[in-house]
Every structure is written in structure tokens, then in C-alpha cells.
Design a protein that fits this description.
The complex is a heterodimer of chains A (275) and B (356). Chain A has 275 residues and is an all-alpha fold. Chain A has a single domain, classed as MetI-like (MetI-like fold). In chain A, 79% of the residues lie in helices and 0% in strands. In chain A, α7 crosses α8. The longest helix of chain A is centred in the N-terminal third of the chain and has 37 residues. The two termini of chain A are 44 Å apart. By secondary structure, chain B is an alpha+beta fold. Chain B folds into 2 domains: 225 residues, P-loop containing nucleotide triphosphate hydrolases (Rossmann fold, 3-Layer(aba) Sandwich), CATH 3.40.50; 111 residues, OB fold (Dihydrolipoamide Acetyltransferase, E2P) (Beta Barrel). A 6-stranded mixed sheet of chain B has the order 6-7-8-3-9-10, sandwiched between helices. Chain B has a 5-stranded antiparallel sheet with strand order 13-12-11-14-20. In chain B, β4 and β5 form a beta hairpin. In chain B, 40% of the residues are buried. The interface between A and B is medium-sized, with 18 and 29 residues.
Chain lengths: 275, 356
Amino acid sequence: MNTLASIDRRILGRWAFSGAAGLTLGFILLPLFFVTWLAFFRQEIPAFPPDGYSLKWFWAIAKHDKFVQGFWLSLQVAIAAMVIGLALGVPAALCLARYRFFGREPLSSLLLLPLVVPGIVLGTSIYVFHVELTIATELPVIGSLAGLVAGHVLVVIPWCVRLVAASLAGVDRSVEEAAQSLGATPPVTFFRITLPTIRPGIVAAALFGFVVSFGNLEMTLFLVGVGRTTLPIAILQYLEWRIDPTIAAVSVLQILLIGAAMAVTDRFVKLSRVV
Amino acid sequence: MAGLRLEHLSKSFGATVAVRDVTLDVGDGEFLVLLGPSGCGKTTTLRMIAGFIAPTAGRVHLGGREITALPPWKRNAGIVFQSYALFPHLTVAENVAFGLEMRKLSKAEIAPKVAEALRLVRLDHLGERLPRQLSGGQQQRVALARALAIRPDVLLLDEPLSNLDAKLRETVRIEIRELQRQLGITTVMVTHDQEEALIMADRLVVMSEGEVKQVGTQRELYEQPANRFVAGFVGRSNFLAGTMVSPGRFETRGGVAISCAAGLTGPAVIALRPERLALGSAAGGLENHMQGTVELVSYLGASVDVHVRVSPADRIVVTQPNRVDARTPEEGERIDVGWPKGAAVVFPDDGTHAGA
């Protein structure tokens, strides 16, 4: 009697768990599903059920210059921010993980701060800073590409530092000592031993940095110059006047791009092991 | 190949003294084991030899040249770590080749040396595997091959066996010992495992609280321990506290009179090896013999421990080989305990009670 009840309870527990997991997954995937569906509707004003299906909205993207330019700019900015973010984040993570120094904890928190500050606030402050900098130095900082990339680097850094530091924590110090005892100088040890060992963390950091930068809207709104539009901004501007499925088609392409990036990354490092 | 010499080596971390004035000579081809409980400074000493820690004072000489100020990568010391510390992204062969590449050898020179090192540890068939595809014992042998491939002046082993299971440990320690002897390589090993130390070493260094307590062969440490710590740490000893009332005469706190071969007087501790004591009729003719009560008998398979109370304050453990014809004493029984004069080692009582 008792055993039966406990088996019942176990099955019930498993069902409840699967149910909750399924609901959550549905909650995450449902918008993606509808966006993708919508991208293939034939009529201009989305309505259910659709009149029919068409690929014309994907062609419409190519004809809309703002989207094409936005895509290229976003791609350039994201790649630049990712590379610079890694160049700054990897050494920072190395210091934080390896050395005990005065102010280490505050510095560690400081490097995560851009994640916590709302994008609008971040954008406004950087914009004001750019204005002051332009006045002080008379260099054309406001609305410059360099200024835009610098802002993106800021939001990329927390991801780089965290992911790389996490994978460094898993590296046995004696592996580096072994390399040194075999004749490797510290720089050789770093490039031949440490760097390859933390490669999964670096790849994950690069991917997340890229995605975060590519999709950034709020902060970017304040930093783009005249005639310079990133893809998220192009989408926002388009939405102000029209709601046809072109937007959905753009989103589908964006989902595919990031999905492809993740799939490729996953071939080299198991992302689930790092993140 | 080369000898190693440590001169007055000390290391302090702030106010804590980790190693205090260690002077040691390791002969060419000798296997020296640093033995001691955790925190005794043995690993710090090894790391100073390797160059990972700079000594606060003192010098390190290797092969007649002073290396105190040299960084690890210029010392030519092969190290096997407790965690093996293999390079996880390189194959077994690449791991072994690493040190040779660092020495700027050509590919053609490296290949046969790698093959030879792997053959030494009987892993020549696994060169293409990654470390994570190997068992713990195999990883350990790769680490050894990697350290040996560079033909080091000294081989340093940092608790190399403690991550292996007990059965494997028994075979591996013999293997390492034979390989070391065959190559004639000067070796320093750190361990807290007494049995491992006794089996592998040519000579042992017993350390405690950052100091060398005694240096000697297995027999010297066991037969003539220099102090109470060594008597308690290497093998087992019965310790009886009391006073040397006159040269040759010791009296325990419990009032038991013991004759021994020691000239000192004053507060002292006497150490008796449990297996050097005789029980029952065998005790009769010996210089020291007394009667006591059997309080506990522990059956250990190969031997039997008999705990005998000889005075209200003194209890002695006697280990008897478990022979077929031997009679095991019963608990509560009155029995004779005895030992020859030379079986006792006497130390002045310095107030410490380490070991036992």
C-alpha cells in the first residue's frame, strides 16, 4: 500500500517536473515560433488566419537599404567590440583569477557593472561623456564609429571577464608549473598551455560578446551618428511607420545568424559545459 | 646527472616559518625522500628546489652550480605533480615532447626521444591518446615520462602516488624505484606515507614544523631515532615518561624501574618498539622484566597486539607475530613482559608530545 503510494508520488513528481519544464520551454519558444510564422504571411497587415504564404518579405529586406546597411554596420561593430573586448577581458580575467591584490573584489564587481546598469542610462551617460570629451579635446567623438564601438566594448567586457575567469578557475596551476619546469618561459607557457586550456571559455566569451553587441538597441540609440544605423535601430525605425512582415523576416534572419554562430561554436566547444 | 645540495635553506611567509635552516646533500643518483606530516615544510622545500618559491635565505646547488636565483625554466629539473598536471589539450606524445621542443630540438631529434621515454613507462602504444582518455595510473606514467624525457639533473616527485588506489600504488612505487635506479637519476620525493617512503628511499629526511628532525637510512631511523618525534613517526613506539634517576636507571611516573643504556639524567622519555618486547616465559631471562595485566588484545592477521598494563600510569603494547603454535593471551590475564637493555631508546623530555 505504502510502496504504491510512493510510486504514485514519484510518477506524479516526474510529470509535474516535465510539465513545468515544457511550459517554460514553450514560453521561450512561442514568440520565436510566431515571428517565424509571421515572416511567411502573404498579406501586409498581419491577421489570423493568413490569406496565404509568400517569400516576398525576405526580398523586401534586400530592397530596403536601411536594413542592409544596418546589418553590415551591426556586424562590423559587433566584431570590433568582440575583438577589443576579448583583448581587454582576457588579461583582466587572468589578473582577477590569478593574483590577490588590493582592490581585487571591487574591481571584479566594477567589471560586471555594465550588465547591471540599464541600457538607456548607460547610453545617456556615455553620450554626455562624449559631448564633454568633444568640447574638451575638440576631437569629433560624438556620433563617431570609434565612440560607438567603445560603448559596445563596455557591454561586451563583463561577458568576456566572467566567462574567461570561470574557465581559468578550472585550470590547475601545476599544469603551468609543469610547463615552466620543462623549460617554458611565462609568455610561452601562456600561449602554448594556458590559452589553449581556456579556449572553450574564450570561444564562449567571443560568441556572447558578439550576440550582446549585435542585438544592443537602447545604448546604441544614443551613440549612432547621423546616417549611421545598426540593424536593431533600423528595425525600430521601420516599425514606427509600418507593421508588415518584413520585420518578422529580418528577425528570422537574425535568429538564423545567431543560431548558426552557436551551432558552429558548439562544434568546437560544448557550450553547455562553459555556460 | 648531478648531485643536489641545499645550504641553510629557509622560507618564511610573513611571520610563519615554513622551512627553517635546512641543509641537505643528495648524492648523484640517490633517491632521497622527504617524509613528514602535512604542513611540515617538505613540499615548500621541494618547490624551492624546483624554483617555484624563492627561499628567504640559503642556497641551492645542482650539479656543482648554484641555481638559487634561476627561474624554474632554467633549472633542468623534471617534476611529477600529485595531480600529474598533464597538458589536457595535447596528446600523450605531445606532452612528452614539450620539454624537448622547449630545448629547441628538431622534430627528427625529438621523435626517438619521445618514443624512448614512453617505452620506459610502457606506454609506447598510447602516444596518440589525450590525457583524459587514460586511467589515473597511465596519466601518472605519462607525467613521469614527460619529466624524464628532458634528461633532468634532478627528478622531483611531489606525492606522486597519493591519487592512485591502494593496489596500484604498490606496483607503481616499485616501478618508479626500479626505473630511477636503472637511469641513475638523482631524485627527491615528498610524501607523508611512511610505508611508501621506506620502500622507495635510499635515504630519508624526516621533517616536522619546518625543520629536519633526522636524516638517515631506514635502519638508522628505526634503530636509532634521534628524537621522540622520529621514534613516533617512523614505525610505532611505546613511550613511557619518567626520570633518569642515575645513568642506566630509568623510573617511569608510575614507579616502574627500567634499566637502559643511556648516560643522561633528569626528566626523560623511553621509547620501546612493540615488536622488540617479549611476553610470558620468553620474557623471563631478559634484563628488564615485569608483570602486568592484559587489558586488550587486537587480532591483526599477521600479528597480534597485546596491551599490557604494568603500572597504574603505564601501558605497553606488545606486537607478537601470529604463529600457529603461539598462544594468544587472554584479556584480564597476568603476564610477564620483558625486553633486553638495548631495546629501549631514551630521550630527554623536552615537553613535546608529537607522534606516538
